[in-house]
Amino acid sequence: MMDKTVRRYYQQKQKQKEIEQELTGLRNEIMAYFTEQDASELEIGSHKVKIVVQERKEYDENKLFEALPDPELWRMLSKPDTSKIASLLKLNVITEERLKNTFSTKTVKLLQVDKK
Questions:
Q1: What share of the chain is helix, strand, coil (3-state, %, to 5)?
Q2: Number of structural domains, the chain?
Q3: Residues spanned by the domain of 104
Q4: % residues pLDDT > 90 (the chain)
Q5: pTM assigned to the model
Q6: Is residue 44 a part of any domain in this protein?
Q7: Cα-based distances in Å from 72 to 13, 35, 69, 90, 108
């Protein structure tokens, strides 16, 4: 019985890899089309497609360590985790000013496809 389960799991993981590769190719093709069209939102057939731009902070571990006022805070983080840092900021445990030079901002484009 377990042999079947393990075999099925392996097969599904292989399918997942294939699907993820295909999705990456399709996403790249769609993103290239949007770049050619110089567009961020289009209706294509029965779908509404848009590119959502987000900015994400990527913290520099060394600078962040230097900026944190208390080693206990560093232990709470264990490694730069954007959501944990955001929570500490929200709770006013640390300030934006203190973290000013500890991160770079990365722009990320998300592809969103919905039915009309």
A1: 50, 25, 25
A2: 2
A3: 50-116
A4: 34
A5: 0.57
A6: no
A7: 40, 46, 9, 18, 32
